Please model this.
Amino acid sequence: MKKGVWKRFLLIFVTVVFSILFILPSTPIYSKLPPWWGRFLPSKGVTLGLDLQGGMHLVLEVEGERAVDNTLERTLSNLKNTFAEKKMVLTTAKRDGQTLTLAVPTTPPETLKAAEKILDDSTGTMLKKEKAPGEWVLSLKEFDRKKILELAVSQSLETIRNRIDQFGVSEPLIQRQEDNQILIQLPGVKDPERAIELIGKTALLEFKVVDDDSIFSRDLPAEVGVAEEEKFLKDYQGKIPPGTQILFERRVDKETGAVSKQPYLLHAQSVMTGDLLSDARVALDEFGAPYISIAFDGVGAEMFAKVTEEHLRKRLAIVLDNNIYSAPVIQERISEGRAQISGTFTTEEANDLAIALRAGALPAPVKIIQNVTVGPTLGQDSIRQGIKAGLMGTLFVVLFMIFYYRLSGLLADFAMALNVILLIGALAVLNATLTLPGIAGIILTIGMSVDANVLIFERIREELRNGRPVRLAIDAGYGKAFSSILDSHVTTLITAFVLFMFGTGPVKGFAVSLSLGVIINLFTALVGTKVVFDLVSSRRKIEQLSI
Model:
C-alpha cells in the first residue's frame, strides 16, 4: 500500500516539474536563465493567439473566373503552337469570353481532317462544336470548369501558406471558408502592409520579347509620368500592332529620386513563364544594390537556353505581374539555366519578391474582403482582464472550499492549483495557441476540478455519517464518486471534441483548453488528492477528518 502511494506521489511530482519546465519560457523569468537552457531544456512556451498578442485578421476572395480565363488562354496558345509546328494555317484563332473560336482553310480536304485530329488530341476534355465547315467553337465542360475553380482556391491556399511560412510568422491560422474564401490570422505581425503586399501578390513571372523591329516601337516616348499610364494606354489602344502589348518599367533617378515609367512594346505571347523555377535568392551587385538571382529546373534550363538562342541580340523583358523589372539584350546562349531580376527596389522588397517567386504564382488574383488589425495594446488588456477574472474566480472558489470543507477543502484547492499548472504545461508541450476563449476554458476547468472534489467529499461525509472509519470512508467516497465523475467528464470531453472538429478559430481554442482540462482534472481529482489522503493515513491512524 505504502509503496503504491509513493509511486503515485512520484508520478505527480515528475509531471509537475516537467510542466513547470515547459511553462518557464512563457514567463519573464526565462530571459534571466543561462544561455545553455535553450539548448537542453524547453525553449518555447505557450503561443498567444491573435486576440492576445495582436496581429492581422484577413479574409481573401479568390477570383476563380480569372483562373478559367487563364486556362482558356493557355489552351489557345498551345493550339496556335501545335498548328504552327504542323505548318498549318489558322485563319481565325481567338477567345470570346468562355469560348475559343478556331478556323482553317477548307481546301484541300485533308486540311480539315488534320485540323480535326489536332483538336481531338489537344482538347479532349473540351466541348467542340462545328460552327461552319473548317470553323469550330470550343468551350469547357461544366465539370472541368468547376474543377478549375476548386483547384484555384486549393492552390491559392497552399501558395499563401508557403509564403507566410517563409515570411516567418509564428503559428498562423490559414484555412478555407465558404466556396472561394481564405481566412488568414497572423498573430504578432508588426508590419501589416508588407504582409498584405506579400500575400496578395500574384507573382506571375513571364519572359517576353521586346518588339524593337516595329516602327511603332520607335515612336514610343522615353518615359511616362507615374500617374499617366492609364491615359497613355487609352490613347494608344487600337493603334499598336496585333499580337503586341505595352508594359512599363519603373525607373528612379538616382540623383533626384524622381520616379517615371518607361513604356515597352512587347510580343504579347510569353516565350517562357516562371513555373519552371527551382530557386530565387537575393544577391548584391558590385554597387551593393539588391537583385534577385533565379535558377530554373532541368526542363526550364533547357527551355531557357533555347529561348536565348532563338532571340540573340534581342531584348528579353522580365515581367512580373505585368510590370517590367528589366529588359536586357541577349548577348549569347544561356545554357546554365540562371538569370537575374534587377530593379529599383529595396532589400526588403527584393526579399519579399524572392519569397513570392519561390512559393509560386497564385493561380488567380485574390482580393481582400475583410482586413482587421488587432493592436498589441488590446491583446495585453485582454490578458490582464482574463487573468483578473481567473484570479477573482479562483479566490472565491478557494475561500468557499476552505469555509465549507475545512482542511479537506484546502486539499481541493491544492488539486485545483495542480490542475492549472498541468493544463498550462500541456498547452506548452503541444505548442497549442492560447486565445481569450482558451482562457475561458481554463477558468471553466477550475470550476470542474472543484466540482469533482465536491462529489468525492460529499460521498466521504455520507460514509462518515453512517459510522464508517475514516480510512474506509475515504476509500468508499472515491470509489462511489468515480462513476459519476467519469460520466460527467466523458460527456464534456465529447462536447469539446465536437467543438474542435466543427468550430473555427476561437472556438477551437476553447475546445483545446476544455478537453485538456477535463483529462487533467480526472488525474488531479482521482489521483492527486487521493495520494495526499493516503500519505497522511499511512503514517498515522486518523480518528477524525476535517471535512
